[in-house]
Every structure is written in structure tokens, then in C-alpha cells.
Design goal:
Length: 175
């Protein structure tokens, strides 16, 4: 496929977006997009956002999901935990799934998805409190990808990026 630079990100709309055409490295993520993403959105347990080429707005180049979550304070680094209110858990935003279609390799789709998801989580954290974005990397490749955005390990095996650091990362990207 030809390299395309103009993309848009929208909430998943099954009446427009062709989920059955999406192919990525993970059969699990393909199956999620095809069979569960819409149902989870209808149940209001996660939100799925798709990145589409401006020239074919039904074609999904990538997607990510966000949902509410929490972080056990005991899983946080001690230095951060000491600065927080005395609750057993803190609110967080879960970046649950993120994938890029194989035909769009090498076009920075993963970075675009990540920055959009972080920006969306950061902006909503000012209206509904969220200490950090957390994720569950499925393998070492995913872990390395998240490390590239400064995600840190939690004692639980998850990774997290505090909202303060997301704000700084987004400012750096603009400059």
C-alpha cells in the first residue's frame, strides 16, 4: 500500500469502519476489534478509537482502547506512593489495547496512536481524576514500545506513566 500521511482518529463506528479488513501481528487483537470492541463500547466499559486514512475513512490503520482502572498504591514506587493521599488504590486510565494494521508498517502509526491516547487520557484527567495511564504489555516487544514513551514498571507487572509526565511529554512533542 502507498505511504499515506493524512490520518484521522475517530471513535469506532461499526457502520463505517471495516473491522474485518484489519490485520496485525496479534490474532487476539484482530479478534477483539472484530467481535468485542463494539460490545464493550455499547456496555460503556471501554472506548475504542480508530486511526483511518483521510482518503479511505472506512479503512482501519490502527486502534486503541481506553477505560477506567485503578492502581494499588502498594504497586507504585515508594517515592511516588508517599506523595499520594492515603487510599489503598488510585484512579488510573487503562490503555487496554493498541495495534497497527500490517499494511501500514513504517508509517509511525503506533506513535500516532500512542500520542493520541495519552493526550486524550491527559485531557480527561482534569475532569475525572486519573493518576496515570497504565497498560499490560503482552510481550517484550510491547514492553520495549511502552518504554520508548517512558512507561515504568509496576510491581504488579503492569506499566504506568504518571499524568504529570504525560503533560511534559505532550509539551515536548509540540515544541
Amino acid at each position: 500500500m502507498k505511504r499515506m500521511s493524512a490520518f484521522l482518529i475517530h471513535p469506532l463506528d461499526p457502520s463505517i469502519h471495516r473491522r474485518e479488513d484489519f490485520r496485525c501481528e496479534s490474532a487476539e487483537l484482530e479478534a477483539f476489534l472484530r467481535t468485542r470492541a463494539r460490545k464493550e463500547m455499547e456496555a460503556v466499559v471501554s472506548a475504542c478509537f480508530v486511526l483511518v486514512p483521510d482518503v479511505d475513512r472506512g479503512r482501519i490503520a490502527g486502534f486503541y482502547t481506553l477505560s477506567a482502572a485503578e492502581i494499588e498504591v502498594t504497586a507504585l514506587p515508594e517515592g511516588l506512593a508517599k506523595k499520594l493521599p492515603r487510599y489503598p488504590a488510585m484512579p488510573a486510565t487503562l490503555l487496554g489495547r493498541l495495534a497497527r494494521d500490517l499494511e501500514f508498517r513504517g508509517q509511525g502509526i503506533g506513535d500516532r496512536l500512542m500520542f493520541n491516547g495519552l493526550a486524550r487520557a491527559f485531557s480527561t484527567s482534569h475532569e475525572v481524576g486519573s493518576l496515570a495511564v497504565i497498560t499490560d504489555p503482552k510481550d517484550e516487544k510491547a514492553t520495549a514500545f511502552y518504554r520508548g514513551f517512558h512507561f515504568l514498571p509496576l510491581k504488579s507487572g503492569r506499566m504506568f506513566l504518571p499524568m504529570r509526565e504525560i503533560g511534559q511529554l505532550l509539551k515536548q512533542r509540540k515544541s
